[in-house]
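Message: Just now I want nothing more than another pair of eyes on a protein record. I am handing you a single protein, as its sequence and its fold in token form. As I understand it, each token names a local backbone shape. Take your time, and here it is.
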Amino acid sequence: IATPGGIVSDPATFNQLLAHCTTVWLKATPEEHMKRVMAQGDTRPMAASREAMEDLRTILAGRAAFYSKADLSFNTSAYDNLPAAFEALRTKVRAAMAG
């Protein structure tokens, strides 16, 4: 199940997910988050606020304690491309599920 990052704002739903699923926190730097949003053609974050990057940092920092409840975490910023990130993530998940 892929969920938006804001799922942590709904404690009941988030707790159900934690209780019934193996969860993975896909981490990235704020700069990488913004780069990906803009690469998708969405310029609203920057257009809406000159402080968009600082706002993003604040949001991610505020959610970090909730995200850290996930069974696994995986930093996608460390990878140049999607196939490499996917392979590394799959290896990590398989190892965790086997262990």
